[in-house]
Amino acid sequence: MWEGTIRETVRLNNGVEMPRFGFGTVFTNKDIIRWAIQYGLRNIDTATDYDNEDIVGQAVKESGLKREEVFITTKVWNSSQGYEKTLAAFEYSLKQLDTDYVDLYLIHWPCPDNDLYIDTWKAMEKLYKDGRIRAIGVSNFYPEWIERIKNECEILPAIDQVEYHPFYQQRVIKEYCDREGIQMEAFSPLCQGKVEDSFVLKKIAAKYGKTCSQVTLRFLYQENIVIMPRSTKEWRIKQNLDIFDFSLDDEDMEIIRSLSTPQGRINMDPYTFHEQKNLKDQIKEREEREKQQKNQ
Ligand SMILES: NC(=O)c1ccc[n+]([C@@H]2O[C@H](COP(=O)([O-])OP(=O)(O)OC[C@H]3O[C@@H](n4cnc5c(N)ncnc54)[C@H](OP(=O)(O)O)[C@@H]3O)[C@@H](O)[C@H]2O)c1
Q1: What positions carry a catalytic annotation?
Q2: In what order do the strands lie in the sheet with 226-227?
Q3: CATH number of this structure's domain 9-295, picked from the four choices 3.30.70.3270, 3.30.200.20, 3.40.50.1820, 3.20.20.100
Q4: I need a surface site. Which of 215, 236, 284, 296 has the fewest CB within 10 A?
Q5: What is the reported pTM?
């Protein structure tokens, strides 16, 4: 029923075409990003917080592709929220990426406690109108915060990038985004590798002769969610792309939908994410906790 290709794009609410299959770059390096581009990925997700915008820019340049052939997303970090600070943060990102525009600029976290995201958004609207960004969006936003943007600003976000994988499917946000014409994008789509341990996914994967990661990515793809798995291994980058020669049937889609629980979240909850903690520290802390639990 479904074919698709890794070059397929989705049309955002401002008409910009965004590749549906992307690559997450946290904890990667230039060679890894180059492999991703070499294997056909044209949508690269970075953030000032990942401290790797420079190598993303270099990898794109060294790929030999034209700048407009690669869709680059970056994000304004929490400590740069507010109108003037966001304008400055954007200039910093451009310099790091060594480019004169970004395709998609996101507010990384809402940080509703400091109440600055409206000012941040207004700065992004200015940059968008000035032609420096092709599309603007948010990340980790619940509908209530997008509603504020809708009521107090001019431009509706094009994207909401949130944690979304079989064990934590934020369907309330998905339904809201679908209604409002906002594209949902999944981060940690493989639950940081944990999908490979699922008995249910293993059974489905065996049926299609695929891996649990491929089944998961195919599931998200069929849910019309933009995906950007990360891997530091060349063979896995390639393997994760191999999802276009099968499609999950309705029954399997329903089974995977039923795997989501409120305990399935692995990243921070935006409601309580009030500290300026970066993603690397979160992942390190969680790995440390898991190591301690294993040793008990
Ligand atoms: N907006 C936000 O707040 C936010 C938050 C988190 C992440 N993100 C973005 O989303 C991207 C992806 O999320 P993520 O990095 O958290 O997690 P992810 O893509 O769900 O998983 C990455 C992990 O899964 C492993 N993996 C990849 N393919 C695999 C396979 N086929 N089999 C087994 N394990 C596999 C990788 O290990 P190996 O390297 O060993 O292959 C890595 O440890 C990030 O890189 C970042 O760009 C955004």
Answers
A1: 50
A2: 23-24, 43-45, 71-76, 102-107, 133-139, 159-163, 183-187, 226-227
A3: 3.20.20.100
A4: 296
A5: 0.93
Write out pLDDT tens, residues 7-65.
Answer: 999 999 999 999 999 999 999 999 999 999 999 999 999 999 999 999 999 999 999 99
- Residue-range domain boundaries for the chain: 9-295
DSSP code, position 154: S
CB of 128 closer than 8 Å to CB of 149: no
CA of 34 relative to ligand 1 center, distance in Å: 17
Residue 162 β-bridge partners: 186
| Best residue for ligand 1 mutational test, from 52, 188, 237 (most atoms within 8 Å of Cβ) | 188
26 lines ligand 1 (CB under 6 A): yes
> Measuring from atom 8 of ligand 1, which residue has the nearest CA?
187
Q: Where are the alpha helices (DSSP H) in 75-231?
A: 83-97, 117-129, 143-152, 171-180, 199-208, 212-222
Q: Residues 72, 74, 77, CA angle at the centre, nearest 5°?
A: 175
Do 106 and 159 meet the contact criterion of CB atoms below 8 Å apart? Answer: yes
Does the Cβ of 222 fall within 6 Å of ligand 1?
A: no
